[in-house]
Predict the 3D structure of the following.
Amino acid sequence: MIRKVIERYVSGGMCGYDREGSPIWYDLIGPLDPKGLLMSASKQDFLKTKIRHTEMLRQECRRQSEKLGKNIEAITLIYDCEGLGLKHIWKPAIDTYGEILTMFEDNYPEGLKRVFLIKAPKMFPMAYNLIKHFLCEETRQKIIVLGSNWQEVLRAHIDPDQLPVAYGGNLSDPDGDPRCRTMIKYGGTVPKSYYVQDSVSVQYDNSVTISRGSTLQLEYDVEAPSSLLRWQFASDGADIGFGVYRRTKRGGGQKVTDMLQVLPSERYNAHLVPEDSCLTCSEPGVYVLCFDNSYSILQSKKVSYKVEVLPPPEEPMQNPRSRGEQRLQ
């Protein structure tokens, strides 16, 4: 069952060769359902899958070396970021992806020639900030972010007959599919019938008991606009209210009801499914995360939580509509 889920819902695949004869691997982020996949399989299952993919690509490099009479030892990676969203920066997913990147760098240090990153949305710099510390400097230098002329750049490095129609080339499946789905898997949402666990194990930094009829307020100083405020929490035994606010006055003493409501308070069944979410702070200031147990007249709630403030990228990424290229740091 687990292998069936991975084969059907993990996107990507090998398709064609670049102009030097290196195999091309496509990674598609948009169709991925990170939470569904991690509810249906373990990190080790994904690591084993990526090892199988990498070994297959190494064998393909050896075949190409024999066929072309020259040494082919690295692949070209096309990373399609269309559809990148908040679900993809879910912390367990980032941690799993980080382990895969670390495994790849530790075991296949020379296996990557270049990475073309295409269709990057506005939130890409924030997502990249979360994973870049898993990458060595040499790998970072191989990542090239393409602008609106990405099809033109891909054709400069890949013969159109080796490039799918959907990516600006002439290659299609025998049935005319421009996305070459016989070679590139497009993933999708994992049906809950495949889930084998109720939740993904998360390490929390703090646990606190909130008395019946009371609230807990956590304050975080966000110094830079476009910072990411990220939280995870779980409750024991029953639901808990949660909302996010921003102080409009300096100093203490301001009531939650007088603050700016950023995320309306609502009750979460965090005793059944741990909550994991985030928001981009458009303005700096003191943000208040409020756990609300005021509606409970009988029951105290134990809440375990982890909260992070992630600064914005050091350098703004180019407008995706621009035609230039950019190497990431």
